[in-house]
Description:
25% of the residues lie in helices and 25% in strands. It is an alpha+beta fold. The chain has one domain (2-93). It has a four-stranded antiparallel beta sheet, with no helix packed on it. Helix 1 (2-16) packs antiparallel against helix 2. It is elongated, with a radius of gyration of 16 Å. This is Lipoprotein. InterPro entries: Lambda_Bor (IPR010438).
Amino acid sequence: MEIVKKLPLYLILLSLVGCSTVNMRLSGKKDRRPIEETQKFYLLGLVGEQTLIMKDYCGKGVSHIKEENSFGDSFLTIITLGIYAPRTVQIYCRL
């Protein structure tokens, strides 16, 4: 019964160690203002597949892509108990 009472604390601590960022740097100078997209995943990120067509965002090509599990993403994952687990993607176009 004691574990059930501490379950919310354990979930919060677990999500804090799960923050991550993935960077892909390509050639060329990047725009200072990224295009930001939220990708939707479910069941702690195990369900869902997202595809971004880069030429739809950047006519001259992409310079840098950053995908992260931000504080806001983690917060939403916690309050939904992992049912909804968004990820934020920032796309920097080539100048």
